[in-house]
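Please check the following for our workbook:

***
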Amino acid sequence: MDMDILNPHVVRIIIAARKEDSISGISKRIGLSYGWTYKWALELEKAGVLKRKGKKVFLDEKKGFYREVLGFLRASLGENPGFYYSALGLFGIKYCFTGTDAVFVWTEGGYNIARYRDYYPIFIKVRKSDREIFEFYARKLGLKNGEGIFYKPEFLEDFVVHFHKRMPVDSLENTVSFMKKHIYNFEPALEMIEEMYGKKTRIKYKEVITNV
């Protein structure tokens, strides 16, 4: 591996790059200026990872440097859920966290349930038109459905995205409805939501009296 060009910008470019892409597209996805993205794209071109043709760049997935960087990421961060949460922002797709992950976002990491190192689904909504791109990135990161850390996508024609702490997520109202539907798993989280946002979320259980 050429350590001279290995830096956070190069790593983000390698994660974000598609088979057929553009420097401007990569620049927008990784949040780096066009000039700096261009500079590091040139270095990746020297390494054989990218090839320019006009305004387009093409990714060579067979090049050793590319495979080594991805292998390094999988080995060092493959068991770190935070990596997969942050990587989603580099895909350039419309998505948001839903279900258990919406609870995780709105409780600001304070409530997580039924997930552990060997089984950690990340629940997201993905726009149907972005499905092919999303699946390309999932393959690139070596994710296996149902094993270890993996994305659990729900593909929809479209959906409304809300933000909390800059994280795309279902609305608080929809998240509360989800928790109420699965009250036995999320009653502690509902109490947290009530304290954090002043939401009246308590469920009133009525005692049924019957005459015998």
Q: What stands out?
A: DSSP finds nine helices and eight strands in the chain. The chain has a mean pLDDT of 88. The chain has two domains: 3-73, 87-197. The longest helix spans residues 183-197.
